[in-house]
Amino acid sequence: MAVTFSDLHTERGLKTLEEHLASKTYISGDQLSVDDVKVYAAVLENPGDGFPNASKWYDSVASHLAKSFPGKADGVRVGGGVAPPSEAHPHTEEPAADGDGDDDDDIDLFADETEDEKKAAEEREAAKKDTKKTKESGKSSVLLEVKPWDDETDMKKLEEAVRSVQMPGLTWGASKLVPVGYGIKKLTIMMTIVDDLVSVDNLIEDHLTSEPNNEYIQSVDIVAFNKI
């Protein structure tokens, strides 16, 4: 079962460690383990004669570490605490259990990066949706009726004038000439439009019945307008 030690830099914390080691040689039994190294790192110095079990344990762990790390330690500062200089072993201090150590700062920084990445991913996803929306925008099929000025109007040129109007979202379709009377014919022509890109009213007023197309086209009426 996992054992929790806290405030090992205080007398209260050392008392807990002392009681735990009353029946044990090491933290998790009779052999040195990683648990001992973790607890050792949290104890600032040898607990002293007031804590004989903890003091004996501390010296034993220090002895083993000295063999693994034979280099001379000059002492380091970690999380605001100063590790005691030692000829036998290096000594570091873990952050306090309340979470005020440097590890929390590292975690916060990592979280910020994650939020930035998440935001960037959301922006890319939104851009994809906008593009998809444009591609999937509604379409309509429109039948126009184009009337000439009189029976002398060249209907071939009239149709060429109509089809010369090009814009994004506009596709011209089939057409035919329909007799009106007195030798006059009108042009009926189909077109397919993307609703978000083409306004039929603007198409008629700004392109079909304005210069230079109004030389052949007198008027344009919408005969049918159906959503596709």
Automatic annotation (TrEMBL):
Alphabetized Pfam families for the sequence: EF1_GNE
Residue ranges, annotated region (Disordered): 75-139
One example GO MF annotation: translation elongation factor activity
Positions with biased composition (Acidic residues): 95-115
Translation elongation factor EF1B beta/delta subunit guanine nucleotide exchange domain segment(s): 139-228
Family label: Belongs to the EF-1-beta/EF-1-delta family.
InterPro entries: eEF-1beta-like_sf, EF1B_bsu/dsu, EF1B_bsu/dsu_GNE, Glutathione-S-Trfase_C_sf, Transl_elong_EF1B/ribsomal_bS6, Transl_elong_EF1B_B/D_CS
UniProt name for this protein: Translation elongation factor EF1B beta/delta subunit guanine nucleotide exchange domain-containing protein
Stated role: EF-1-beta and EF-1-delta stimulate the exchange of GDP bound to EF-1-alpha to GTP.
Regions of compositional bias (Basic and acidic residues) in chain numbering: 116-138
